[in-house]
Design goal:
Elements: H1 2-10, H2 12-18, E1 53-63, H3 66-83, E2 86-92, E3 97-104, E4 114-132, H4 133-145, E5 151-160
């Protein structure tokens, strides 16, 4: 009898064999709800919003370590090639921008005892050509999320736009 009780507790298939009146109760009930169209449906003649077009996107990267900047620029170019973005220029400035601060070691006297501190900022630039707005947003979000520490990124977008209606082409007379 104890063997039957242990089988009863452990295996539901055995319970069905031992007791044919065993009923399976569902955990939840599913009711079918008919799909209804919303009352405020958008008409099919709604204006389609066109994607923006960018003639050029310029990336300016600044950092304190030239090796990190070089590695990050390689990463940006590789990401652009995977998305099919055309990279036209990728270069760095020859010299770093130097900012020097001179401080006195002692606050009160001894002007001849000074210390100079220098901050060097390295730059890298990447130019991308002919981008759509969605591709540009995807690319920029991806590279911004992977921006290393000690680096800054400045993005300049040059957008293509239609001529305003009040400007008309010259007529040949």
């Amino acid at each position: 009898m104890n063997a039957i009780r242990s089988l009863w507790r452990s295996a539901p298939l055995v319970r069905g064999v031992i007791s044919p009146n065993y009923a399976i109760r569902p955990l939840s009930t599913v009711t079918e709800v008919p799909i209804q169209k919303p009352i405020d449906a958008v008409p099919s003649t709604a204006a389609v919003e066109l994607d923006k077009l960018y003639k050029r996107v310029e990336l300016e990267m600044r950092g304190i370590d030239p090796a990190v900047l070089l590695s990050y620029s390689w990463f940006c170019v590789a990401a652009a090639s995977h998305l099919g973005i055309e990279v036209t220029k990728n270069w760095a400035l020859r010299k770093a921008e130097k900012e020097r601060h001179t401080l006195l070691r002692c606050v009160h006297i001894y002007k001849k005892h000074r210390v100079q501190y220098e901050i060097r900022t390295y730059f890298r630039f990447i130019h991308l050509q002919r981008l759509t707005g969605s591709t540009c947003d995807t690319f920029l979000e991806y590279i911004e999320r992977n921006l290393p520490e000690g680096c800054a990124l400045k993005v300049t977008k040059i957008e293509c736009q239609k001529l305003p209606e009040h400007i008309t082409p010259p007529t040949n007379e």
